[in-house]
């Protein structure tokens, strides 16, 4: 007989092994009820006080339990160790309890790199990039050395070249192997997204070993830097060195051919997809459909779509988008209805594509798609919401667009740009400027579209001082170099505010050719304010005729004729009249459209542009005859 103490020790070891086996089974089954059953048995046999088993039970609730279950199990462990705190912390973050996790983190008696990484990752998942970076700084102040996982999280958050280089330098200082596969690939991806191609290539060359992910990241870096042909050359080099492309490589190469709109190179990549056996992959097939569509080979897209053995929502999304981009919006909507009938669930991309189509369809269909987005739970998706705002802006329903924007919990720069440009377009200048100031306060950096929207708002509102300040400081304050659209906008603002000389001077100094609209405004202002400055009128009129010689330019010709006639310069009048005839300018025909039920009818000033137009004219003639008394 063994002593009682040895018997108990053996029983305890048997129980530990038994419960560990049960917990492993529970992890495989992912059953919350099973987890509660194991927890109850631990309490019943008095083993809940065992820290090892308590931590394993805690891990069950962290994976698929509730917050209450997790915290109750945590409280029942009398001898909590660092593992207990870390497991509970991860569980709270996984359950979305960010504030509760931070409170627990602050209460921890000690922390290791796992604790800090959990909080950095938690803030990152919640979109709180600033908080993640602040937590990293606190980690360093606390004396905890970052791990490779720490840096892999940070490099995915970087949006500024300086920050990226600082983090890379920090890796070197902390003697973290930045040239291993995980961090090396992350750095290539980071530098690629920051458009620092040379740095991405340097990391790739210095890496101890590379894999297919390394090559994909490098090809993507060339793609981000708009070196599309070089990106395809990297694909060739990769294959020459014995690496086989995967579905991501081929879908990326297909997308590059789409952007190049090079159908011949696209066909070569398509052949490689077939040879590699990846054409059955929905990501590759959908990229191929997009490529043929963007290369103006819609018939090839349709053929590929029809030859696909099994429908997938990604493939259907590409085909719907292809139809819409080629002007077949009704066909795209019909395909969407077929998709719904097959039971495939639409994605955010599906809804976004459809919202882009409703501009050429009745506006009530846009409202129907909006309702569907809400029903599907996409009303908080940032891509769908941006598309909704753009759709309502297009229809002039700015209040609806603004209401959606203000209800958003998370906004990206595209969303801000969409609402600012929409408000500016419809004369809501003060609101657009107010949102711009709020955008700056959030810490987001505006881009060229943001600044253009704000300058448009200043133009429509006549805010000269604000417009000039924003224009003159956009490079220094926001890192945005003035483009052609910014110059044209500020010149229009100067003209509107009566600053004709300044507008002409800026138009002559700008590094771009002024747009037709800008020159038109200057010319109109010259006629009203120049007091007989024929040289200026002639210069602007001739510039207009140079910018758009094929468009309707009767205005500059007529202005010159009027000015020459007023001064009695008959020879010049004859010359301009001859130029008018030689130019064979044609009057532009205005058009308008109206949606009735599910049909869109387009009207031109000189004819009716839809099937059945002749019948309508016959009815109109009959009604006219009736009104004139023809029935008598």
From TrEMBL:
Keywords: Repeat. It comes from the Eukaryota. PROSITE patterns: PPR. NCBIfam families: PPR. PANTHER family: PENTACOTRIPEPTIDE-REPEAT REGION OF PRORP DOMAIN-CONTAINING PROTEIN, PENTATRICOPEPTIDE REPEAT-CONTAINING PROTEIN. InterPro entries: PPR_At4g14850-like_plant, PPR_rpt, TPR-like_helical_dom_sf. The lineage of its organism: Eukaryota, Viridiplantae, Streptophyta, Embryophyta, Tracheophyta. PPR repeats lie at residues 81-111, 112-146, 312-346, 412-446. This is Pentatricopeptide repeat-containing protein At1g43980, mitochondrial.
